Amino acid sequence: MTISPQQDRRERELDAARRISEALFQHLSVEELVEQGLKIALEVVNGQAGSVLLAKPETKELVFYHAIGDKAPRPGTAFPWTEGIAGSVFAKGEPMVVQDAKSDQRHLEKIDQNTGFNTQDMIALPLKRWEGHPIGVLEVMNKQDGRLDQDDVAILTIIASFTALSIEQARLFQEAKLAEVACILGDIGHDVKNLLMPVLCGASLLKDEIDEVFTEMKSPVPAKAQKSHDLCNEVIEMLSNNARRIQDRVKEIADCVKGLSSAPKFSSCKMAHVVASVFDTLKLFAQEKGITLHHEGIDDLPPIQADEGRLFNAFYNLVNNAVTEVPTGGTITIRGNIHTADHTLQIEVVDTGRGMPAEIRDSLFTTSAMSKKKGGTGLGTKIVKDVIEAHSGKISVQSEVNVGTTFFIHLPLGPHPASTASSSN
Fold first, then answer.
1. Is 120 exposed, middle or buried (0-12, 13-18, 19+ CB in 10 A)?
2. Which of 25, 128, 306, 329 has its CA 20 to 30 A from that of 285?
3. Please, where in the chain does CATH 3.30.450.40 lie?
């Protein structure tokens, strides 16, 4: 019995719907669901490669969330959502079939150049929320037994709908969990704030007591006594400073619970002071592990408009993470210089640690970031990324296993837009 093209298409549509439905009921994570949906999309139309791009409203970009293919773009690769065939589909909210990508002026040739992939034909479909607003784009490229056409669009529309549904469900679930966590953090924050008060008071009393003891002490070895006195004062100051920083962070948590997410407070800031504060806080920890902390060129950098407290949190996370990865005898170096090409400060955080495998390095600043540490969450790198982006900066990473890791941070030299706007009001 001969099967008509219409019957064949209908059977393929039903098979695609069945398979994606089964995936939805397997309690997979959103990353696994997106991967499964993309795999099914490629199989049912016999495509060579595909990707799911999600919209990032803060920067008005489309970001590669997941990609399949021998020369797939790295997760986190982004471009303006007004550019490319994907940008056109995202804006119009309608699928598009392109049978010769090279002749289409909207095709982003730079993506192919960066990956080495050769896009021939493609279908791009919008991923939409229930109310119809696009949240991203699903792309399938290079049909291996012909050219992608409207028949393939019908099948892929089903898969795109289920993929968007799974992403939306994950978003709603995450929002519900965050609301629950916020309530718990509010209680914890209140308790931590109360517990820190005796720490601060105790540190102050201890300093007064030690100062008095050393003043009255008649030591046969004055130099040794002075060294001990200086160390005690240094440790007490470190405890006091960090207790105050914890109090500030707790206040941020409390504000967040109340729905008062605080904006960065921009003022004149010297990177030398930020780096010195981070090194002072982690000096004893690094010494205990036999690791050297030092900086190069930081003292020569001009002031920038920044939120010093948030920059401290970002660089603290980077250095603290590095200390746990660098073996005894290793180094952590923070280098600074002025990058004239884009008028920014370029800060490098370089360590001689164990480095990161490619899969962790490439996902580091994406929604699927993972930690290689036991019990790690990847939250530290999210904090760093959020801080840098709040300063209109950029961050990237290079890492090689058994060689080390370097983070590259670019911060604008000129006045920050937020600080300029507030000063003109």
1. middle
2. 306
3. 5-177
